[in-house]
Please model this.
Amino acid sequence: MTKKHKLRPVRLAGALLAASLLLTACFDEGAPQLVASGKARMEKKEYKAAAIDFKNALQKDSTQVEARFLLGKALLETGDVQGAWVELSKAREAGFNNDELVPVMAAALILRGENDKFIAEYADVQLTAPQRQAELKAALAIAYGGKGKYVQARAAAEAALQADPNNIVAQLAIAQLLMVSGDKTGALAQVDKTLKAHPESSRPWVAKADLLQASGSEPADVMAAYREALKLDKGDMQAHLGVIQLLQRQRDFDGMQKQLEELEKVQPGGLQGRYFKTVLAFERRDLKTAFELSQQLLKVAPQNPRFLQLAGMIEYERGGYLQAVAHLGKALANSPTPNTVRVLMARAQLRAGDPRKALSFVQPLLDNDNPAPADVYSVAADAYLQMGNSEAAKRMYTKAVKINPGDTRGRTALALADLSEGRGDRALAELKILAGADSGIEADVVMAMAHLRSNRLDEAVAVVDGIEKKQPGKPIAAFLRGRIEQLRGHRDKARAGYEESVKRSAAYLPAATALAAMDYEEGKPAAAVGRYEKVVAADPQSVEATMGLISAKARNGAKAEETRSQLEAAIKRFPEVEAPRLGLVSHLLEIGDAKGALQAANDGVSRFPDNPFLYEALGVAESTTGNFNQAAQSFSKMAALQPNSVQPLMRMEELQEARKDIPAAIVQLRKVLSMKPDHLPAQVRLITLLSRTGKSAEALALAKTVQTQSPNEPQGWTFEGDLLASQGKWPGAIAALRTSFAKRPAEDTAIKLHRALLSGGQPAEAAKLEAEWLAKQGDSPLFNFYLGDQAMARNDFERAELRYRKVVDAQPGNAVALNNLGWLLHRAGKPGALDMVEKALALAPNTPAVIDTAAEIQAATGHLDKALPLQKRAVELNPEQPMHRLHLAQYLIKNGQKVEARTELQRLAALGSNFSQQQEVQKLLASL
Model:
């Protein structure tokens, strides 16, 4: 199929605008000299100075129509299209000569991006001067060509040649039309003919360069033709622009800068020069400058599709996705590349979190009888994926790859689908091929993550080495190295990897987030705040970084109202993004302000009535306040917006559990699995509920189903081991957990297997597993915490202290480990107990168990004035925990508050056999 090429826009300074000006008006004293001066400046291409002369002439006599026309023409040459249009329109209203006026107005309309208006107003206009009629018809040929109406374009060009056989614009329009029709030889022959007819003109050389480029000639030959044009006319705009665009394609940004400087010399402040300065800033990723320049362009020509499209691209990269859609929507009608605009609009809406609107932008192309370009199917696939319709997404990716087998992104997505469907070997083989053939890293990253997920760390290292070679100095390889070392239990090496990642790019959020998580574990929330502050400083438009910073400040002790104010400020700053609103709802629920959460969720739904995540937040808020029926309605609306997603059904299942309707919850989970048979969260929950309701055989059968669905993944065997362990069937539990551990030696599985070996009477095997795990990952906090709990349970307090110290060394911010270690030190009479517990209390000020320990130590040291408020707080936070109430009664008695103590003890006595410490309760009551 012959590739079609759009006709180039008309050249302002070329034959279309060339006209000898007639002096038809009488000026008062001084005006003729000003007009003459302006004309002389126009000849020298000093358009700004000429415009000043014409404005001064009009100040002397505003009725002088020719001065008005000349001012419009000068303004057009300076790039002030809007100002030019105003002046030219006034000249037309005053009856200025059409032969002079129409070609200039034609150029203004085309530069304004109003090809349709130009065609509508001037297609049937007849000018008296043959030369002007030829220029008008040539401009119409360009306008028709820009709309893809090549039959009308050819007719207009031929009419131009009939009016003036020597019209260079029409001659070159014919050449372009021949090229569009696929006649490259005829097109070049027409250009050569024009070169002979107009040896003094630069225009045929520009046309030749364009045709050479369109026919795939060597860039050096194209550049040589443009340079020939500039030898003949240093001010040839199209030649300058041709050179600039060629340098842009070659990524020679320094060359672009130099050529723009040359263009500025011959046309200071010109509109096209300003446009490509914006392009250059965008290419260099100087988004701040690019944005500022794009706004200036839109002030001059707010309807120009090229300017709007560029502004949309800039907004997209800046993260202003809805503003990008607004610009691109205005550009769409007159854009020479409407498919590109639609795809970018769709991608912007996807980034804004609205896959339905994204799909609507490309749907007309999907509904067309002709196959759409590959990127259309690709963005449609992304939309379906975000909507939860994985089957439709897969169909779209398949079409994209069929049209373009080199579509690495589509092939990567299909490989990812294979991974999720359990075809890991096939997926990894495809990813390896893609990674080897593609200079990009998308396939490499997916392959690395697959290896990490399966704990194949050596294989992951090899993939990351390849990523580093492809993108040396970029942050992602260093980040993945950090992740590998973290999985190996090498905390210092992991930190070094993450630090290198943020050193390479201060705005790289994943590495900053990983470091912040380590800061939290080490009890350094202020350090986490600092990390997010650096990311926000490097990328102020990052909503995710802003939300991370707010969360970090909250964890560092910011008051609830401060956090609320920060979230509300984020909502104002990012009004088109739902994340801050969702964060506000979550925060208000967390601090117990259910009414405020409900209001915030309702406000969000009002602002984003088609956003399923806000209906989800609203449903959660309603459920928290006990409005179960309203919550069900909200989750139903969420489901309507995500008809192929199982998440709304999972929320409905949570609602059924909140209502304590377990049979209904089980029915709901079965619905989920009928839609998505391999949905692991639903399988986990259903296995749990079946086991809880005595349907162990059915639960075990489901675990076996998971094993069949994902034979290379450990989850199915973990489920089986958990079920058999809950029934005390230790040999079977041990066998299943061994299989799971062999498939992926995860820490939580190691703990479960160790516990099963002990319970199953195999202490030697448990000790062997413990020694092997600690030899490899001796600093593993989770495993050490488990061992500490085991030691506590058997009253091996010295060993428990040793293990909890290991946890605190690795995670100084682990409040529970600090609390347990503090209690052990207190019990043993060792120093540092209160210090440990106060650290835990600072980290978890609302945790009843920690408060209870702090009160116990204060009471033991005689500080009842401190112990009593603490213990009352523990009871207030967890009134159903009888031990906290017993401790409170004991402290009240010690403090001489017998009446209050009796009240607490009587409440405990009412529990009867449900409280194991009734003997102590009765003893205390008897003492009062």
User: Anything to note?
Assistant: The chain is about 75% helix and 0% strand. The radius of gyration is 37 Å.
